[in-house]
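Weekly structure sync, notes
Attendees: PL (lead), two postdocs, one rotation student
Agenda item 3: pending single-chain targets
PL asked that the sequence for the first pending target be pasted directly into the notes so everyone works from the same version. It is reproduced below exactly as submitted, 497 residues in total.
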Amino acid sequence: MSWSIEFIIWNILDNVRHSISDNIFDIKLDPEKITGIDYHSQESRNAKISILSDDWTHYHLTDSPYSGNVYRDFWEYAIKIKRNDEIVFIGWVNLSQIKYNKKSDIITFTACDILGMIGKYFQKVNFNNEYTFPFEAYLENMVKTSLYGIAEPFPHINVTSNYNFQTEIPQSGMEINITDELSDITNWDQFFADGNPSFWRIGLGLASDNYGDPSVWNPNTYKTVKHLRLLEDGTPELILCQYRKRRGSYRPSYNIVYCFREGIRILTCKFDDNFLPYDFQTASHTRDEVTSESGSYIDDLFEAEAYWNEYFVNAGYPTTNNHSLAVNDDNTIYFGEYEENPITINYDGIVGFTEITIKEGEYSYNELIKMLLMINNLALKVDNFGNIEIINKDYSLSNITIADTDVLEFTQSRVLRKSPDYSSVLSPLTENVETIATALQNYYDDFIPDFEYSVEILNNYNLKLNDEITIYEKQMIIVEIDKDLDDFSYKIKAWSV
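Predicted structure, written out during the meeting:
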């Protein structure tokens, strides 16, 4: 088995300036890790290398004044480690980790992979207002910007998403916030205002005439629908509807005139994955006053409820109240500028953050990336070529059974459970931080494994992080994998499933 090290321009990975294959004294590669019981910490991978100096390495690593790249404290050259001409690691050399032993003429240096460069270029990001972003695009952009800045100096490195939202967090009784900032929405109590006489006024008399007063109409009939449903794409949608109809009669002269009027108003709004409302739609339809000397004709109109059927039933809206929608008078959630009769919506369903809203403030890139990974249970993974992949932490497509004869060592230990400060991690979110923190804690408390396994097996399998494996009839998921440099065995840490 042959090893080689190539020295390359730090941001042009195919521009080789020097290579060595002899006099490599030692190579130590960190294992690949997706670990942390708090379930959002990510670990970069380091390589520690010891070589016998030659003219090029002696000059550039020991004699020449260091020329850094755009990253503070990093050398102008990166390295590729190859085994049998296959790349196993690409890393960036930290200037503070270059050491030279003059007596032995050995140079030792440490390089970190691309994950270790996150937040080194642009450390802070400022929001001068509140912004809402699509989750997937925003997370990718945050990772790229933390690495590249605007110039994007890594043309050979890609950041891709390869995850799904199957790890969404089930939540019962989550409260949807509808605040007084939504000035285009009227209070439910004002949805059809009895105090507006112009809507129900009929007849040709003066305003002081009794027959112009809606109170003489009999009866006043209405239908109310409060319904929360999930659309086909999983988006929660709230529907509020009031339909009202009235019939009455008056005698403007010698003959009785029968009157009918009806109206319907429908409000719909959707909720993003932070359970904040958006896409408000209101529709209002009122029938002009119908008058007739035929009482039976007016009765037929009254029974037909044409506007209710045309604009609501036939339009496919649900006609029943939904039990997960509760109305109370706690004065915590309300429509519009009114605080009477607030509506509180308790949603039983799935918390999946396909959109993210960040409030005004200054944040570090590491802080935001950490939060984004945590709320959707994701991790960053880097391949041997430096490409970054965003993956699910607890989602595996494979289950590999390891033969008992391939197991060299197997130990089992209890996992010490602990909970991170969820509220602190989630502090950049605009709304529902406490509620989301509770949901996350409940989810992760259930997911934290009971056992951790330390295993060494023969390298007869193509194993990788997040693979689900079975050893001695115990199911587990790989969270750390260290391949022997001689390709003889794997050392694995795994969590019980």
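Discussion points:
- The helical segments are 55-63, 135-148, 197-200, 295-304, 306-313, 365-375, 422-425, 433-447.
- Residues 177-197, 199-216, 323-344 have pLDDT under 50 and may be disordered.
Action: rotation student to compare against the earlier draft before next sync.
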